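Lecture notes, part 5. Sequence design as translation. It can be helpful to think of inverse folding as translation between two languages: the language of shapes and the language of residues. The source text, in structure tokens, appears below.
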């Protein structure tokens, strides 16, 4: 856990001082968020993977959610931000316990992009972003832009499904590290595409779903067809790919 503590400490320093950092321009900011800040933040989820089979995940997740609410009310926004990450991570791990087979995960990965797209473009997310921006800030994780008082945000469902899909890659013997990389890259690409198209926001769950499906496509295909092969073993060690087993 020493690495996790070091990464968290570094992130807290950045979050508390980000407005005093350089102001290098729009695309440098996008690159910083996508290539440095997001990987650092989501490294915390990777480091938490050994706890995915622990007891009391629901209680821990709810405790983090309560802590996030208290810290938000007390205006400790940075700490509330990371409490939300803790809540969604452990709740995602807990939710995965209801998935009996990897087929269930694949079905969810196929459905949530459409639900998220509707929500962002026509549904409740659009209404919240357009008319209740303060509510969205409470229900999202912020990635501060260096040298400014602004941030890119991901909603709490994006964080929850990131944790769920990453934990699923470990539970069902898929490629854990490649899944993490593609998940992070997909979210970074979503941020970049939002800026390039000059939009208020894009649904992030399509990228999260792709981040799970793409690096594991061949293993998932074998599993869904019921053929033996790589990836049949479940709950492989974190950090080892199925190709190494």
């Amino acid at each position: 856990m020493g690495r996790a503590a070091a990464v968290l400490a570094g992130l807290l320093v950045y979050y508390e001082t980000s407005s005093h950092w350089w102001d290098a321009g729009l695309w440098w900011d996008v690159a910083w968020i996508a290539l440095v800040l997001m990987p650092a933040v989501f490294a915390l989820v990777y480091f938490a993977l050994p706890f995915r089979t622990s007891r009391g995940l629901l209680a821990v997740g709810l405790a983090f959610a309560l802590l996030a609410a208290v810290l938000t009310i007390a205006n400790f926004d940075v700490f509330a931000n990371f409490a939300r990450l803790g809540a969604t991570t452990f709740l995602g791990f807990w939710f995965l316990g209801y998935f009996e087979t990897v087929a269930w995960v694949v079905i969810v990965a196929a459905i949530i992009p459409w639900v998220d797209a509707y929500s962002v473009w026509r549904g409740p997310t659009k209404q919240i972003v357009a008319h209740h921006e303060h509510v969205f800030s409470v229900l999202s994780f912020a990635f501060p832009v260096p040298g400014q008082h602004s941030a890119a945000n991901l909603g709490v469902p994006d964080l929850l499904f990131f944790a769920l899909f990453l934990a699923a890659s470990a539970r069902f013997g898929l490629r854990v590290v490649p899944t993490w990389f593609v998940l992070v890259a997909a979210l970074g690409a979503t941020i970049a595409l939002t800026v390039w198209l000059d939009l208020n926001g894009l649904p992030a769950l399509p990228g999260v779903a792709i981040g799970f499906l793409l690096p594991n496509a061949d293993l998932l295909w074998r599993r869904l067809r019921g053929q033996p092969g790589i990836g049949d073993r479940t709950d492989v060690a974190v950090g080892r790919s199925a190709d190494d087993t």
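The translated text above is only one of many valid answers, since several sequences can fold into similar shapes. The chain has one domain: 2-244.
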